[in-house]
Amino acid sequence: MTTTTAVPTPWAPFRAELEAQRTDCVGRRELALAEAVTSLPDAVALGRAATLLRTIEEIDAALARMDAGTYGSCVRCGSVIPPERLESRPFPAGCVSCQQTLSEG
Predict the structure, then answer these.
(1) What CATH number does domain 12-104 carry, 1.10.3720.10, 3.40.50.720, 3.40.50.300, 1.20.120.910?
(2) pLDDT at residue 1 above 60?
(3) Which burial class, exposed, middle or buried, applies to 42 when counting CB atoms under 10 A from its CB (0-12, 13-18, 19+)?
(4) What's the whole-model pTM score?
């Protein structure tokens, strides 16, 4: 029988952080949805749940980019996203320049 071990990548710490953040967001979203159900209509809880869902989707997309080997590169221009940016927020899809362009436009 052959045993396969995962090859460590430079992104392993980021994957662990993304997975931990995703688990936290899912739990917080479930709480927000439960709050919304118990006190109808609770626009604040629904808004929080929607924001958390967007964050979960961003994390899932970052994990998919990691699996595809494109994590750490801007999805618009292909430039490298600085590790410092990924350390502060490990799921951005774009570099600062492209994100600013999207925000302004």
Answers:
(1) 1.20.120.910
(2) no
(3) middle
(4) 0.81
